[in-house]
Amino acid sequence: MTELRVRVAGSGGQGIAVAALLFADAAVRAGLYATHSQAYGPESRGGASKADVIVSRAPIAFPIAARIDVLVALTRAAVERYRGDLETDGLLLVDRDAAAPLDGAARVVPLVAEARRVLGAALGANLVALGALVAATDAVPLAAVEEAIRAHPPGGDLERALRALRAGLALTPVAAVGEEVRAG
Length: 184
What we know:
alpha/beta; 7-stranded mixed sheet; 6 helices; Pyruvate-ferredoxin Oxidoreductase, domain 3; about 25% strand
């Protein structure tokens, strides 16, 4: 990997910006360069929400990604709105409930369902998504992600955050559309 451009997208309140910020923080902790940008405004109150991260081994010339290599989508609206920004050979990680109908280029993961299973609530699906992203891209070392979470535990609950992260890691390798992904 020379440079990886990632967009995490969903609805406001799902922790989209938190997951992306933790990914960027982890990249910096691993000695990489990283930028983080996110949508502000009404998106933070339940509308569409997105956050972009660029991770690179070299200094980043421009901090905003016009095209992305990976789209992690927690909602169908996020897929519809941002899929056009995905490179032709890019990776689309999409929550199972937002997947249909998609072609075989998408990888379906039960992000929200896994958060409910592991945490008892959909809140935390962002960290399950972070785990799936880390495993699918191998761009940032897991130890650095765990370090970032320890430094800034979402919701102030470190153990809950780490359980969600590990649940997402266990969801990979991800399957193509039409295949079921199960936790390890």
